Q: What sequence folds into this?
């Protein structure tokens, strides 16, 4: 199997696993900040137990580590916004707003990665906007704050996606994951004392929440995140993000079947989701029609 096709398969596996993150965020009863803190803690501890991580860290220059740490802080803020959207709206809304990320990516990826600017990417990204407008019209007003938090999370995802594309280079994907999520954990640890009453303790998860957190940390974080970084060597950040736009399909299907979220939205919401997915398949069709090969790692500026 050639590297490009293998990368496409891996990114879709990531999407399937990521499709459950919004659902788990709804099932876990912890407040948003505590949920993100526990997720990052579990991931950081798990990665620190891998000898491969420590061996690979010795090969990464300090300057690159600092860059990856900065990206990790963006990831942590993205998670805060995303799970805030889940809590204030619902899993379906939070997952759907991630479709705005390609619009940002189409604008910033060429500047940050040196990739050629392609107008059809911007056009397809813009085609997502009517779908999002319909999504807004199909949800109750008390979910609007959650929706805009979801939009913020999408913008942050677009930025860190592009920066990872720019700086990953030949560095070990698992070690980079450890640096980024470890830095995110430190950031949330610094924020946590100021987020509630002075001296308020960390909220301990219940047994059920603890089980869901383990699933979230291992199966829906470590595995897909490392695979995702690997795919960036063979896929453009824009192509990767458009594939990730399939996440709402999985998240909404599970939410409707098991969380009963269909009662919270109208048919207009689902029409908006269909438009979003149409843009995803439109991009795939355009790629196949033009026969364009996705940028390889060698076409990206070297990492620092």
A:
């Amino acid at each position: 199997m050639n590297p490009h096709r293998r990368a496409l398969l891996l990114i879709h596996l990531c999407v399937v696993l990521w499709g459950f993150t919004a659902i788990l965020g709804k099932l876990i009863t912890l407040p948003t900040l505590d949920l993100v803190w526990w997720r990052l803690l579990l991931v950081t501890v798990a990665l620190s137990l891998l000898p491969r991580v420590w061996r690979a860290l010795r090969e990464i220059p300090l300057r690159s580590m600092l860059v990856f740490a900065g990206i990790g802080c963006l990831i942590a803020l993205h998670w805060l916004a995303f799970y805030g959207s889940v809590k204030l709206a619902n899993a379906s809304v939070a997952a759907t707003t991630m479709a705005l990320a390609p619009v940002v990516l189409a604008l910033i990826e060429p500047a940050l990665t040196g990739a050629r600017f392609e107008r059809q990417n911007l056009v397809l990204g813009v085609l997502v906007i009517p779908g999002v407008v319909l999504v807004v019209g199909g949800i109750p007003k008390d979910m609007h704050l959650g929706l805009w938090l979801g939009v913020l999370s999408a913008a942050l995802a677009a930025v860190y996606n592009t920066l990872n594309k720019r700086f990953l280079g030949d560095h070990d994907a698992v070690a980079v994951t450890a640096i980024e999520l470890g830095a995110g954990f430190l950031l949330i640890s610094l924020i946590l004392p100021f987020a509630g009453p002075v001296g308020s303790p960390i909220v301990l998860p219940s047994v059920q929440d603890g089980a869901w957190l383990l699933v979230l940390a291992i199966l829906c974080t470590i595995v897909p995140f490392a695979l995702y970084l690997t795919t960036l060597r063979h896929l453009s950040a824009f192509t990767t993000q458009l594939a990730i736009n399939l996440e709402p399909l999985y998240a909404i299907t599970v939410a409707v079947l098991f969380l009963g979220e269909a009662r919270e939205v109208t048919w207009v919401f689902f029409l908006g989701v269909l438009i979003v997915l149409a843009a995803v398949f439109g991009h795939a069709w355009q790629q196949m029609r033009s026969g364009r090969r996705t940028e390889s790692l060698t076409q990206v500026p070297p990492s620092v």
Q: What stands out?
A: Residues 292-304 have pLDDT under 50 and may be disordered. The chain has one domain: 3-194+207-299. The first helix runs from residue 3 to 18.
